[in-house]
Amino acid sequence: MEHRLSKRIPGKLGLLVYKRGLPVATGQIRDASKRGLFIATDYNDIQLNQILEVEFRFPERDEKHFRRLKAHVVRKSDNGLGLDFDGVENDHFTISALIRWLHEHHRAQDYFPVSNSAMH
Question: How much of the chain is helix, strand and coil, in % rounded to 5?
Fold first, then answer.
């Protein structure tokens, strides 16, 4: 049985995945908590415990800048990646804003479509 330390909020929000500062894939946040998130992506050139960055923006008209979070990979599956915020430097305001946005928006937001090939 899996025990979570914080509640996961389901939702959908497109994002870019960065590895070593370079964009390598697109994906979609499927759920998030104060501790981490799960992203749907077909990108798998990743090792467990590797640090990634994810970049997203809230699609409201007045939201023009992108937000970034760092996380390390704790789970890999055919459907995506489980990422944990623990042990990396992040803006807790951005994490709280993401959870609040997902809670308020239950429809899919596809601003970065998931594709079968990594960005080069």
Answer: 10, 40, 50
Question: pTM of the predicted model, to two decimals?
Answer: 0.80
The CA distance from 46 to 6, in Å, is 25
In order of their start, the domains of the chain are 9-104 (2.40.10.220)
Instruction: Report how far apart, in Å, the C-alpha atoms of 61 and of each of 58, 65, 95, 106, 115 are.
Output: 9, 11, 20, 18, 25
Q: Residue 100 in 3-state DSSP?
A: helix
Spatial contact of 52 and 70, defined as CB atoms under 8 Å apart: yes
- Per-residue pLDDT in tens (0 to 9) along the chain, 120 residues: 444 456 889 989 999 999 999 999 999 999 999 999 999 999 989 999 999 999 999 887 666 789 999 999 999 999 999 999 998 899 899 999 999 999 888 654 444 444 444 444
